[in-house]
Amino acid sequence: MIRNGTDRSIKTVMFDNARELVAGRMSEFCEQQGIRMISSVLYSPSSNAVAERLIDVATNGTLTMLCEPPPRFWAEAMTIMYLWNRTPTKVNEGVTPYECFSRMKPDVGHIRTFGCMVRATLPKETLGKLDDHGVTGYLLGYKYEGGYRIWIPRIGVRECRDITVYEGKAPVQPEDGSVVEVR
After folding, report:
1. Tens digit of each residue's pLDDT (9 = 90 or more) over 80-135
2. Same domain, 54 and 29
3. Which of 65, 89, 108 is a domain's end point?
4. Is the pLDDT score of 35 beyond 80?
5. CB 139 within 8 A of CB 118
6. Rounded to whole angstroms, what are the CA distances from 78 to 95, 99, 150?
7. Which of 1, 79, 146, 166 has CA atoms 20 to 30 A from the CA of 160?
8. By three-state DSSP, how is residue 156 classified?
9. What is the distance between the alpha carbons of residues 81 and 59, in angstroms, rounded to a whole number?
10. For 157-183, what is each residue's pLDDT tens digit?
11. Bridge partners of 116?
């Protein structure tokens, strides 16, 4: 629940009149928690303009980010909303949505280019004795507590802390397995 992480609580939620949200368990939950539910006019996306705009931002951002990794990572490309929440907006007078909610300035020092090549050191506990601990992959997103989500083609998606990022340059792997940066 949101209120467990902050001293704030949700007072009102607005839905686009989706039946699965307006009725049933969600309705019961909101009633129990004292949360007011508002729904837009049926078949009128314009009455929920802010949410519709965010859906456009998410969709267009996701499509743009998918030009490098395979399209099957569309859900990972929704990292766009992670970035959106850490970007200052006019509506909030130059403050980020993250900062408005948490009352803390977001740390953006860890943000890197989506889909860029990375060299990751995998934990030895997840590999066999003779497996290579350093692997090349592609950055897909972020994990709380300082980790990254990367796609390693021969292994799959993994969460790692220790990575070397190759933004704007590609690693070349010679026969001996070492990494040489190309500038």
Report:
1. 888 888 989 898 899 998 898 888 898 888 888 888 889 988 777 777 777 777 88
2. no
3. 108
4. yes
5. yes
6. 22, 20, 14
7. 1
8. strand
9. 10
10. 888 888 888 887 655 554 554 444 443
11. none
Among candidate residues 65, 71, 64, 178, the one with its CA nearest the CA of residue 132: 178
Q: What is the per-residue burial (b if ≥16 Cβ within 10 Å, else e) of 60-86? A: ebbeebbeebeeebeebbebbeeebbb
- Burial class (CB within 10 angstroms; exposed 0-12, middle 13-18, buried 19+) of 166: buried
In terms of residue numbers, what domain contains 93? 48-108
Tens digits of per-residue pLDDT, 2-23? 555 667 788 888 777 677 777 7
CA distance 81 to 54: 9
- For residue 36 the two structure tokens come to 């007011």
102 with 133, same domain: the answer is no
Q: Determine the residue type at 52.
A: E
Number of helical (H) and strand (E) elements in the chain, helices listed first: 5, 9
Q: How many domains does the chain have?
A: 3
- Show the CA angle centred on residue 144, arms to residues 142 and 146, nearest 5°: 75
Residue 1 confidence (pLDDT): 47
